[in-house]
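Researcher: Please predict.
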Amino acid sequence: MRRAPLALGATALAAGLALTACGSGDSSASASSGKPAVKVGGAFMPAPAGGDMAAGFFIVHNSGGADTLTSVTSSIAEQVTLHSTKGGVMKEQKSFPVPADGELDFERGGNHLMFENLRQTPKEGDKVSVELHFAKSGTVTVTFPVKAATYNPTAKSAHSSMSTASMASTASRKSNPSHTSH
């Protein structure tokens, strides 16, 4: 009869250790290590006035963990570079952080893309395919409609330009499950 209490004690000890192990995790650590969930909206390219350069603008919406936009490519240009503008000074950037549960804006007068050495000049009404490369989310392919050279949406209209239908479309992915693009 001595075995029954010993077995019961061992079972209770094992259950207690299991519960302790489950409760020992730091919930903030698991939240910060969550997978990014990026979606892109408000994308557009103003029709270039001439020359071999164009600009691009968009908003990255992230409903998950932090990520980093590391580079951009497009078949329309030999090179696409990332730029910030602060105090009227434009500076090329190697990458941009995408905050957890936040947004990264590329807008006139601020962060923007520069399409350099254009292989063809996009005209108003054209659509340009652009690949955004993220450190964790992989590659997201986005279609940039070419707008009038003077097109400048307000921040409010750019943020609300993502429709339910466009959010449901699937982007080209290299490393993670599909994300949507606009």
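Model: The beta strands are 38-46, 53-62, 67-73, 77-86, 89-93, 96-98, 102-106, 112-118, 127-134, 138-147.
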